[in-house]
Amino acid sequence: MAKKKAKKAAKKAVKKATKKSRPGVTKKAAPKKAAKKATKKAVKKATKKAAPKKAVKKAVKKAVKKVAKKSRPGVTKKAAKKASANKPVAKPEPKQNILNVYLTFNGNCEEAFNMYRSVFGGNFAMVSRFKEMPPQEGQPALPEHLANMLMHISLPISKETMLMGSDADEALGSPAITAGNNFSISISAIDEKEADRLYAALSDGGNAVMPMAMQFWGSYFGMLVDRFGINWMISAGRM
């Protein structure tokens, strides 16, 4: 079909070229070069128009395949699929409770932590003083000597380890600080449900110093002394 169309178009082009090149001259006398040139042009045009869509699609697919093969030499489609299937999928690590040490001081917490920072380096993650504490309903006003003492301070030691501390005073209901009772084990629980479970289990047979409750600094927090005399602080959320 394409060839017939090309021949027909060629004849037409020859006739036209002959007339233009030498007006008034017969078809036989037309120069051979003009006829040949017109024929080639007409055949090319007709073939281009008559080119089937399937052939074009096939050529495009072949070219794409060739380019893909060059971009990944030596890797077949089958091998690439197999490699993708064998690639291990990274599983998210399950959340875990984090244990840290919490130190209690008799008014010199800031001095001690400045020394610890000089040893371990880094910067304090948080520093808050008792004067930042909002007034407590039914509680006496905060004594002046406590205003600038540290209510909480934390110094990151590693990605998961934090050294934390605060000052304590009998005016706040804290027992007198003596060597041996001046530290607590702090647990950052994965959620409030886990914090409640830990608190109930550890305080069994011990002393529930501060039951678990939401605190003004935004943490679900509680303190206890277990039956072996060890101090514990449990929190969920911001510490």
Describe this structure in words.
- The chain has 239 residues and is α+β, with helices and mostly antiparallel strands.
- Among the domains are: 1-21 and 32-46, no CATH class; 98-133 and 144-237, 2,3-Dihydroxybiphenyl 1,2-Dioxygenase, domain 1 (Roll).
- 38% of the residues lie in helices and 22% in strands.
- The chain is built from 6 helices and 8 strands.
- It has helices spanning 2-21, 32-50, 53-71, 77-86, 109-120, 192-203; strands at residues 98-105, 126-129, 150-156, 162-167, 183-188, 207-214, 219-225, 231-237.
- Helix 1 packs antiparallel against helix 2.
Strand and helix map with partners:
Layout: H1 2-21, H2 32-50, H3 53-71, H4 77-86, E1 98-105, H5 109-120, E2 126-129, E3 150-156, E4 162-167, E5 183-188, H6 192-203, E6 207-214, E7 219-225, E8 231-237
Parallel strand pairs: 1-4, 5-8
Antiparallel strand pairs: 1-5, 2-3, 3-4, 6-7, 7-8
Quick summary of this structure?
With 239 residues, this protein is an alpha+beta fold. The protein contains 6 helices and 8 strands, in the order H-H-H-H-E-H-E-E-E-E-H-E-E-E. Strands 2-3-4-1-5-8-7-6 form an 8-stranded mixed β-sheet, covered by helices on one side.
Question: Which labels suit this protein?
Answer:
single chain, 239 residues, alpha+beta, 2,3-Dihydroxybiphenyl 1,2-Dioxygenase, domain 1, eight-stranded mixed beta sheet
Q: Can you tell me the CATH superfamily of the domain at 98-133 and 144-237?
A: 2,3-Dihydroxybiphenyl 1,2-Dioxygenase, domain 1
Question: Helix and strand string, N-terminal first?
Answer: HHHHEHEEEEHEEE
CA-atom Rg in angstroms: 44 Å
The span between the termini is: 84 Å
Low-pLDDT parts are 23-30
Q: What value does the average pLDDT take?
A: 77
Structural class category: alpha+beta
**What is the CATH first-level class name of the domain at 98-133 and 144-237?**
Alpha Beta
| Strand element count | 8
Going by CATH, the architecture of the domain at 98-133 and 144-237 would be Roll
